[in-house]
């Protein structure tokens, strides 16, 4: 069933495009044999919280625990392993801000192939360091991935190195499809597989494997609202480029679907949905707090879809956590955003009588309400205030929206006026 609605450049040519070779189930099975002893059969963990929310069993496919921290090793290894001896001798080159870089670096090292990886200037230092440690020569170029990609392709033309695309190649799609085979073995009665989508390689590979063996299983792709290239592309019947994709989820921040995965997604993925940045933040927070799993925003996108519309998925549901390579600084920001989106922060401004002990009394009221005070701003000199008045601005950590209302009620009952 073709995808119908929502989760790089659109070239015009007088001649019809060359046919795209789609991988087959046999290709996926061959890829699995190639990956034996290389990639992990990642764990599948049940989620009681999400199961209660959805009303059916929900399982998390933990590709964030894969070697290099994401599914990307699978496709990169299969692609490089398929190169001829002269191609291997020429080396490989890739462009990536993180997950693909690490996957190519490790895959090439395991196969004894020289690798060069171009990364944007300002790429997170832990990802740059990990890529080097996996054996690649890292070169930084450009402020955005498009500039980095151009530099890598120029390097390939100049040196003869083989460019390893992150998603737009049959071998890469076949490698990612091994995730689908594992899902069917680990959860034989699966009803719906939910997977994040950028260029579409992982979703296409999973759909290829799952639909070939269990055509009744629904496959749902998820994109970030600000980087959702698949809905307009599917509507147009061809890959269409977004002018400026924008999302915190770097792993699915892709401006144009790949030609190879696009055809598969159009034929086999049942639905493509989009999720907001708030939903991504809440999903990442939930994975950390409830599942004890560190997941990057892209990897949390299937969970975001479940949180956004829990009644839309036939169970049992498998949500693919595609990666866990999140920069610590971004993680800190996203967790704060996720707590705010989940109603876990409350900001209040109120006036009180300016006398000794008045602030301490207010803080005692908040303590009785089980609200954790994060910041206090105390002003006495504002010309809007009366002679014996003070204004206090508070930022509180709460237990959620219901608790926020309880805190407001306790403050009002204590005689304080909350300012608009």
From TrEMBL:
Signal peptide: none annotated. InterPro entries: ACT-like_dom_sf, ACT_dom, ACT_ThrD-II-like, Ser/Thr_Dehydratase, Ser/Thr_deHydtase_PyrdxlP-BS, Thr_deHydtase_catblc, TrpB-like_PALP, TrpB-like_PALP_sf. It comes from the Bacteria. Its EC number is 4.3.1.19. SUPFAM superfamilies: ACT-like, Tryptophan synthase beta subunit-like PLP-dependent enzymes. It holds the Pfam family ACT. GO terms for molecular function: threonine deaminase activity. PANTHER family: L-THREONINE DEHYDRATASE CATABOLIC TDCB (PTHR48078:SF6), THREONINE DEHYDRATASE, MITOCHONDRIAL-RELATED (PTHR48078). In the native structure, TdcB is in a dimeric form, whereas in the TdcB-AMP complex, it exists in a tetrameric form (dimer of dimers). This is L-threonine dehydratase catabolic TdcB.
